[in-house]
Amino acid sequence: MITTAKRLDTVEEYYFSSKLREVRQLMSEGKPIINMGIGSPDLSPSKAVIEAVASAIQDENGHGYQSYQGLPEMRQAMADFYKDQFGVTVNPNNEILPLMGSKEGIMHISLAFLNEGDHVLIPNPGYPTYTSVTNLVGAVPVYYDLKEENSWEPDFESLEKLELEKVKLMWLGYPHMPTGARGSLALFEKLVAFAKKHNILLINDNPYSFVLNDNPMSLLQVEGAKDVALELNSLSKTFNMAGWRVGMVLGNPEIIDAVLKVKSNMDSGMYYGIQKGAIAALKCDKSWFEDNNKIYRRRRELTEKLAEKLNCKVYKEGVGLFVWAKLPEGIESAEKFIDEILYEKHIFITPGTIFGSNGEGYIRFSLCVKEEKVQEAIDRF
């Protein structure tokens, strides 16, 4: 019997991988499932993106291996995007590394900087992949609390009381997933100062800045942030290109070079046509975001009605692709609550518990559901 590596004992199958298998089974049995669980945009990329890819397919030079660093014009488009949208200047030659989705960047960064036994600060609640990747590389997750009474932001007094000597990395993500908390430049300034004080590499995971958010921000807007920080970003949510797997990591050349050493040993470059599509997406004007947000705003209004129908209290300040809501008093288990709705009303909602212990008592709705389907979900109650 061939045994698996011990590192697999530290992780479980990703929640959505197993839960969506159950949802698909219910659908195969004829159940009319409305999936409000996962944040996979159902809207299409722009026409310019599709045309760019279609044209690139005909390019006879576009079918071979591509550069690990991506096309120079794609890195330039990424740099221009950060300059136009955030006022952040980055060198496209050595301060940007394109990724096959920002999720792979979490693994690349961890492999590049973490030794076995290093500690990693992870938000609770937060993206589950931060924990699983930390475990896979043999590092130690150390959770810091985010709570509603503190606007889902870190408590710096509590942070300073943690054993920080072994901490190598700190993950954060604003706008925050799953709550939708916006964060602020003042918060980013505190985080950069904290990272410098304790010699910690700070990484902001920033894929939601342009969804229902009138004030997009980047951690790299803070003066001196590049000394200690990286930022991950993605075209998945902003440009409805989740399945295309286009992301990026930005930071100073020495840190980016370390990540490249890992990445260059794990793939052979992004497909040429997808890079051409990404360039077209990054050149979209302001109307692209406005048109998308008109749709998401109407969906959010309906989804809030659904949450209130369930006697939940919506976190109204949230932005991004989800609605975060507090369960009614007396509900002991978010997972039991959503399972009852799944089996009785055939609506799939995400329990807050998959994002950490501070997610207990909360549920998360995705806005990647057409208005008529959200209305149908409301009508089922």
What characteristics describe this protein?
39% helix; EC 2.6.1.-; seven-stranded mixed β-sheet; globular; 381 residues
Word description of this protein:
Its EC number is 2.6.1.-. Its cofactor is pyridoxal 5'-phosphate. It comes from Flavobacterium artemisiae. The protein has 381 residues and is α/β, with parallel strands linked by helices. Helix content is 39%, strand content 14%. The protein has helices at 15-28, 47-57, 72-86, 102-113, 128-136, 156-161, 185-198, 253-263, 272-282, 286-309, 334-345, 371-379; strands at 34-35, 96-99, 119-124, 140-145, 167-172, 201-205, 229-234, 247-250, 313-314, 322-326, 347-348, 350-351, 362-366. β5, α7 (185-198) and β6 form a beta-alpha-beta unit. α2 packs antiparallel against α9 (272-282), α3 runs parallel beside α9 and α4 (102-113) runs parallel beside α5. The longest helix has 24 residues, at 286-309. It is globular and about 55 Å long. The protein starts with 14 loop residues before the first helix and ends with a helix.
- Terminal CA distance: 51 Å
> What is the overall number of helices?
12
Give the helix proportion (percent range): 25-40%
How big a fraction of the residues is strand? Answer: 5-15%
Average residue pLDDT: 92
The largest sheet, given as strand count, sense and whether it forms a barrel, is: 7 strands, mixed
Radius of gyration: 21 Å
Name the quaternary structure: single chain
Strand ordering within the main sheet: 2-8-7-6-5-3-4
Q: Which residues sit in consecutive blocks of at least 5 with pLDDT less than 50?
A: none
InterPro entries: Aminotransferase_I/II_large, LL-DAP_aminotransferase, NHTrfase_class1_PyrdxlP-BS, PyrdxlP-dep_Trfase, PyrdxlP-dep_Trfase_major, PyrdxlP-dep_Trfase_small
Protein name: Aminotransferase
Domain Aminotransferase class I/classII large: 32-381
EC number: 2.6.1.-
